[in-house]
Amino acid sequence: AQKVTQAQTEISVVEKEDVTLDCVYETRDTTYYLFWYKQPPSGELVFLIRRNSFDEQNEISGRYSWNFQKSTSSFNFTITASQVVDSAVYFCALSEAWAAGNKLTFGGGTRVLVKP
Amino acid sequence: GAVVSQHPSWVICKSGTSVKIECRSLDFQATTMFWYRQFPKQSLMLMATSNEGSKATYEQGVEKDKFLINHASLTLSTLTVTSAHPEDSSFYICSARARAASEQYFGPGTRLTVT
To answer: Which residues contact A77 (CB under 8 A, 6 or more apart)?
Structure first.
C-alpha cells in the first residue's frame, strides 16, 4: 500500500525567510507520480507540480523548488523568500501507475504561516 | 486549462435529509472521477472512484449505501449523501481525469453542514 508522510504539521516563518516542507513516501510500484498541492483558506486545491518516478531532476519555478531523492523516497519542497500569500496548507501526494486508476494518496499536510 | 466545477459550493441541510453534490468537467471528457472528503484541519481522504457508465469503487470504510455516486455521463458525476447526519459535515472535493491521462483536475469543493 502506498503512504505519504509529511512530518511537519505546521511551520511559522517571517516574510522573506525560506521554508522547506518535507515529504517522504512509500510505494511498491516502480512507476509512480508525486505531486504537491497548495490549499489556501478558500479550500480549492492548487496544483503546483507533478514529477514521475523516472525523472529525478530537481525543478525550480520562480520562488518554488523541489528536490526529488529516490534513494531516500523523499520529495521536498522549498519556498524561497516567503511571502504572506504563501500562507496555506501544502499537501504532498502520490499516485500509482495507471493500472491503479491514478488514485491519489495524500500526506497529512503542512500548514505554513508566513508572518509579515 | 482543464476546469472542474462543483455545485453547490456550500450547503446546509437538516439531519435525516439527503443532499446531492454535482461535479462537472467543463472542457474535457472525464472518464474517471474521484470523490474526496476532508474534515477540518485534516487531509483529503479518497471516498470512491467512478468510471463513466459503471459502478463506483468505494474505499474501505466508506458506506456505499450512504454515499451514492453516479457517473452517468462523461462530464458529470454526482455524490448523494443520504440520510445525512452531523458527522457527515465535511468538505467534499471531486476530481476528474480524462482517458489515458495521468493528471487529475480538482473541483473547488463543497462544504456540507448538517444541523
So the answer is: A20, A21, A23, A36, A48, A49, A64, A65, A66, A67, A90, A92
- Is the Cβ pair A106, B97 closer than 8 Å? no
Query: What is the mean pLDDT, run by run of 10 residues, along chain A of 116 residues?
Result: 94 97 94 94 92 88 95 96 97 78 88 97
Q: Are strands A10-14 and A110-115 parallel, antiparallel or unpaired?
A: parallel
Chain B residues in contact with A98 by the CB 8 A cut-off are 100, 102
Contact indicator for B26, B5 with CB cutoff of 8 Å? yes
Task: Please state, in angstroms and as integers, the Cα–Cα distance from residue B23 to each residue in A10, B16, B32, B94, following that order.
Answer: 31, 23, 12, 6
Chain A touched by B5 (CB under 8 Å): no
In tens, the pLDDT along A22-41 reads 999 999 888 899 999 999 99
The candidate with the shortest Cα–Cα distance to B106, out of A88, A31, A35, is: A35
